[in-house]
Design brief:
The protein is α+β, with helices and mostly antiparallel strands. The chain has helices spanning 3-27, 201-237, and strands spanning 37-46, 55-65, 72-74, 81-84, 88-93, 96-100, 106-107, 113-114, 120-121, 138-140, 145-148, 151-155, 158-161, 168-169, 174-176, 181-183, 188-191, 193-195.
Length: 238
């Protein structure tokens, strides 16, 4: 297999991954706290030895999470929280602490503030956020401080990853930050709102068309290359 064919094959593989990625973005255009994701293409070149042409291929294995602000929608729910600016909520899962922008929370039977999946919401120190049952009016300040009838009873953690580019998406709205995280600077919590997905459906559909056309172009090249090789083999065999 010559270098041009190998490069085209690896590019086709990357385009297929990007198409799945774009389709996933479109499917989550209405998911609370979802962050759009893209792929970064690059060229990998490997030396094959003295006097031998190098081998190159296209790779698309680096995922790039888009961190632009999503639209805030008012719900009026006392435990519906949105983040305006930088930062993530900290939650506890069976696999460890995870970060999310999806702020649809509610107290469980034990009084712990939890996600729709039942994962406990944590404060900045990693302790569960507890909301006593039967308390009065709940207010949540921009810094995450929870008050009942004006008396502080806890604080929702707002953190930011040490290396945002190294975050690993484990779920549509949950991320793992192996490099660690610390208190968020510049972000604020808004009570009674939820942040929508930051996916722009129009841009994603346009990108889907671009990827499809690029894939078709690559397939056309492969078909012509196949015809050329067949012609050479036929000519040599005469």
């Amino acid at each position: 297999m010559d270098n041009a064919t190998y490069t085209t094959l690896t590019r086709q593989s990357g385009l297929m991954r990007e198409m799945r990625n774009v389709a996933n973005n479109i499917a989550n255009a209405s998911t609370t706290g979802f962050r759009a994701e893209g792929l970064i293409f690059s060229e990998y070149v490997s030396a094959l030895g003295p006097g031998t042409p190098s081998l190159s291929m296209a790779t698309a294995n680096v995922r790039d999470t888009v961190m632009t602000q999503g639209t805030l929608a008012q719900t009026g729910g006392p435990f519906d929280l949105a983040i305006e600016g930088d930062g993530f909520f900290l939650i506890e899962t069976p696999q460890g602490q995870r970060l999310t922008r999806a702020g649809s929370f509610t107290p469980n039977a034990d009084g712990d503030l939890v996600t729709p999946d039942g994962y406990r919401v944590l404060d900045a120190g990693g302790a569960p956020v507890f909301v006593p049952q039967g308390v009065g009016n709940i207010g949540i300040a921009p810094d995450g401080t929870i008050s009942a009838d004006g008396a502080p009873i806890g604080q929702v953690g707002l953190v930011t990853p040490t290396d945002p580019g190294a975050m690993i998406r484990e779920d549509g709205v949950r991320f793992r930050a192996d490099a660690g995280f610390g208190p968020a600077e510049g972000g604020r919590i808004v009570q009674g709102f939820l942040e929508g997905s930051n996916v722009d459906p129009v841009l994603q559909i346009a990108r889907m068309i671009e990827v499809q056309r690029a894939y078709e172009l690559g397939q056309s090249f492969m078909d012509k290359e196949d015809e050329r090789i067949r012609s050479v083999i036929a000519a040599v065999g005469r």
